[in-house]
Amino acid sequence: MEYPLTLAHIFERAGKYFGKVELVSRRPDKTIHRTTYGEFHKRAQKLSNALQRLGVKKGDRVATLAWNHERHMEAYFGIPLMGGVLHTLNPRLSAADLSYIMNHADDRVLLIDDVLLPVWERFKNDVHARHVVVWTHGGPAPAGFLDYEQLIEPELPSFTPQIDDEQQAAGVCYTSGTTGRPKGVVYSHRSQVLHSMSACLPDALGLSMQDVILPVVPMFHVNAWSIPFAAAMVGSKLVFPGPHLDALSVLQLLHDEKVTVAAGVPTVWIAILEALDKEPQRWNLKALRQMVVGGSAAPQAMIEGYQKRHGLHVLHAWGMTEMSPIGTICRIKPSLHSLPEADKFRVHATQGLAVPLVDVRAMAESGEAPWDGKTMGELHVRGPFIARSYFNNPVEADKFTMDGWFRTGDIVTIDPEGYVRITDRSKDLIKSGGEWISSVDLENALMGHPAVKEAAVVAVKHPKWDERPVACVVLREGAKATPEDLTHFLEPMFAKFQLPDAFVFMQAIPRTAAGKFLKSALREQLKDFKLEK
Ligand code: ADP
Predict the structure, then answer these.
(1) Who has greater pLDDT, 129 or 210?
(2) Which one-letter DSSP state was computed for residue 352?
(3) 430-525, what's its fold?
(4) 22 beta partners
(5) N or C: which end of the chain has fewer CB within 10 A?
(6) What does the domain layout of the chain look like in residue ranges?
(7) Is 477 annotated in the active site?
(8) In a mutational test of the pocket of ligand 1, which residue from 303, 422, 438 has the highest number of ligand atoms less than 8 Å from its CB?
(9) Minimum CA distance residue for ligand 1 atom 4
């Protein structure tokens, strides 16, 4: 029972039991590369040896700037096994954020995709990584860089893990900065193992060796929700999409590889649903048993659209970088199976129940909010894979309470069954005449209108009411809707004061580096917007 919980156990298990299970990757040129956990097991150890030869010491951070593929997976294990700390960088961030993050983490080595070298060019002069190793696709790395294949080629395919105890750091991720400067969260070996255990449970992601998993969610976004670790633990086949995250490319992979579980943010699934609606017969998705959606709220209309029109099941999940990231997952309790269909879909669209090992509470001004499905409060969480502090960042210490909870900044209700429903991020709530208006509810409803592809609702300053909601709307190709149509559509679902004062039609809603609607940019865009009333 004194046995330490480390990624070494997961790694050895993958090598011993699942050596023949495939890891499939799509290359930038769209060709398919196939390998196995057996090969991965050897090559990751070669990488551990190579990093040691480069002078990486226990606790040193090793960064990656890469899409999802099997060599990134080698880094996921090769780095922490040799005592290094895996630091995934998000190539969609600005050069200023990337250099800030790399310097803050003090990364010693960078592993990078050749197709992302132009991103590196934009900030390389502002950072001091000692070695830059390139994952090329044919041909050696350009001058001045180390070539990954040449680097690991001479090394032995065996390595004794350099892990002193389970609390040692295995990885670090930075929040994508939706709420200010990116903040680093360090994951220990222990937290990664416990998170993987929790994620695989049947009422969580329910992963097993019967599964073929396609993480559309990038490996630079909270470790692809830690799917690579969980999949290696249970021996699921993995399918990596490389840089091709558009709907048609993902659909083709789902079809060709008979994927059973896929995971991504709502914007990805909204685009895929649109493609499926256009050509419902083109792809055979019979194997696909669940599509995990998280990162921002999954619109109910989308969940219903998949189920009713295509027989596909959406699994709504909520989490945060600070939580490794899975916090809640929505599955319907047996006691709710007899609910009328419309009510069941309403439950499906909630963020669900806390997964095992995660405690939740909603804190209102007067103290802990009752689980009545009505009283709003800020969601607090705690558990063995939830951060107790940010990496080298005393400024944000107030996010962690004296009694051991992390303050998520999300405003929620919790119903008597325990289902958590996010009504907003605290800074996105709209304050109108002393009442709160949930932007998430309005967006959800608007995306239920047949002409609306995407909607984001933000607060605009108002002289009398303090703030009023304005809806930014992207219409489907060829569809038409006027502000009056949309107001009319919302009226039965909302109180009058909750209806948007204006609708702004746009080509696209600006997105964060993680593919979420960037509401701060919309607020900035609408800062001088004149409301009529
Ligand atoms: P960032 O804080 O930079 O956006 P994270 O990925 O850690 O990066 O974001 C976590 C936040 O994303 C949560 O606090 C929540 O506001 C939002 N979020 C994640 N999943 C969901 C979901 N299923 N529904 C609503 N909001 C979500």
Answers:
(1) 210
(2) B
(3) GMP Synthetase; Chain A, domain 3 (3.30.300)
(4) 36
(5) N
(6) 10-245, 430-525
(7) no
(8) 422
(9) 178
Give CA torsion, residues 232, 236, 240, 245, to 10 deg.
-120
Active site residue 30: no
Spacing, Cα 526 to ligand 1 middle (Å): 23
- Pick the residue with more confidence: 258 or 139? 258
Most ligand 1 atoms within 8 A of CB, residue of 90, 92, 93, 178 to mutate: 178
State pTM to two decimals: 0.91
Supply the residue whose CA is at minimum distance from atom 5 of ligand 1. Answer: 320
Q: What is the mean pLDDT of the chain?
A: 95
Pocket (CB within 6 angstroms of ligand 1): 175-179, 222, 294-297, 316-321, 351, 408, 410, 422, 425, 514, 516
Question: Is residue 527 flagged as an active site residue?
Answer: no
| Cα–ligand 1 centroid distance for 200 (angstroms) | 21
Q: Using the atom order of ligand 1, give the atom closest to the CA of residue 325.
A: 7
pLDDT at 533 over 70: no
Per-residue pLDDT tens over the stretch 432-456: 877 788 898 899 999 999 999 999 9
Closest CA to 355 of 316, 391, 392, 393: 316
489-506: b or e for each residue (b if 16 or more CB lie within 10 Å)?
A: bbeeebeeebbbbbbbee
> What does 272-340 look like in DSSP terms, one character per residue?
HHHHHHH-TTSS--TT--EEEE-SSPPPHHHHHHHHHHH---EEEEEE-GGGSSEEEE----GGGTTS-
Q: Retrieve residue 125's tokens.
A: 């002069």
* pLDDT tens-digit readout, 314-332: 999 999 999 999 999 999 9
Q: What is the mean pLDDT of residues 388-399?
A: 90
Q: What is the pLDDT of residues 339-365, one digit of tens each?
A: 999 999 999 999 999 999 999 999 998
Active-site option among 341, 436, 482, 524: 436
CATH 3.40.50.12780 for domain 10-245: yes
| The two three-digit tokens of residue 472, written as one number | 């930014």
| Model confidence band, residue 396 (pLDDT cutoffs 50, 70, 90) | confident
- Rounded to an integer, the average pLDDT of 33-45 is 98
